């Protein structure tokens, strides 16, 4: 059972839910249709998602996280350092067994900064 969403609330609800992570059309449709209902929602949500120009403040462009502990890999890694560029949606996941600040900084530098910024550090 999903609640019917009145017309005057639909776009506002779409904006609130879509702006969480700016997923694509299919994912946005699935997400919203699991929660609400209105007769033209497939078309409306598709059109709104296609028109979305996601912008992220510069301070939120990149996300870095440590995932784990995970089951130990054959190489002895139990963690992943994940990085995503929210502008391009480019993800990276680097396995590691050391989550110290120095090791994570080295992973970010060697696998992200040197590749995408040519090694330049301001």
From TrEMBL:
InterPro entries: Integrase_H2C2, Retrovirus_Pol_polyprotein
A Pfam match: Integrase_H2C2
Integrase zinc-binding domain ranges (all copies): 6-53
EC annotation from Swiss-Prot or TrEMBL: 2.7.7.49
Residues annotated as transmembrane: none
Domain of life of the source: Eukaryota
Protein name, entry field: RNA-directed DNA polymerase
Organism, scientific name: Parnassius apollo (Apollo butterfly)
Lineage of producing organism: Eukaryota, Metazoa, Ecdysozoa, Arthropoda, Hexapoda
